[in-house]
Amino acid sequence: MKQYFSMTFGVILLTAGVYFFKIPNGFATGGVSGMGTLLGRLTVISPAAWITILNVSLLILGFIMLGRSTGIRTVYCSLLFSGLTQVLEIFVPMDKPLTDEPLLELIYAMLLTAIGSAVIFNSSASSGGTDIVALILKKYTSLDVGKALLCSDFVIAAGSFFVFNVKTGLFSLAGLFAKAFLVDGVIESFNSCKYFLIVTSHPDEIIEHILQTLHHGATISYAEGAYTHENKTILHTVCRRIEAVKLRKKIKEIDPSAFIIITTSSEIIGRGFRGV
Predict the structure, then answer these.
(1) CATH architecture of structural domain 192-265
(2) Whole-prediction pTM
(3) 36 close to 58: Cβ distance less than 8 angstroms
(4) 4, 36, 125, 248: which has the fewest C-beta neighbours closer than 10 Å?
């Protein structure tokens, strides 16, 4: 339930970014939403309807080409994204952009879609669309999937030069490049943890705090100081960012002379953190 709540929240953010900011401004930054934006301008069918048509078509293609590996979560996110876009089109029609500041709207379009996509990816799901194309290419060809999708997104973004105008095309290309960095950055921010290497003479009290208060594990190794030749204990542990400040403060209370190395890890996989 927690993961489906996260996926739903991610899809809501993604839909808001696409419907309220990307479609009204003609920002075609790739993917199904970009194709829907262009096709909505070229045909009598609305962008929301095109997004639904494309998503459903790709889902069917995914089941044919990939079988069940398409995934129930991807189906859920894809259909929810299409459905919410259609509902907003009916109840909150957008005839023009919310503001007369396209740069401001591009920022919000990229932030909302990047955070939404990151939340969805972090729940081991995707919003469907071109992600399904990526899976098909990966399975049946030797193409570099990342480059192939970047090229297709570039073509879609470049199409806005011809369908809309040069200004919209430039904004679309800027949004495409920004999206590539934002999604990865947000995902890393969600998953980032702190790795502690603690050299101490009072290991037992620190271990007790890690086990009993933080409810994390620790690894113990023994060492000898190169200068003093004193026997020391080295503790290795990881914790979330919010816990790191408390742990650092507690270590200094227990052993003021402790030597601490703290590094940031983009992801921790294991019990108490993320599954494989």
Answers:
(1) 2-Layer Sandwich (3.30)
(2) 0.75
(3) no
(4) 4
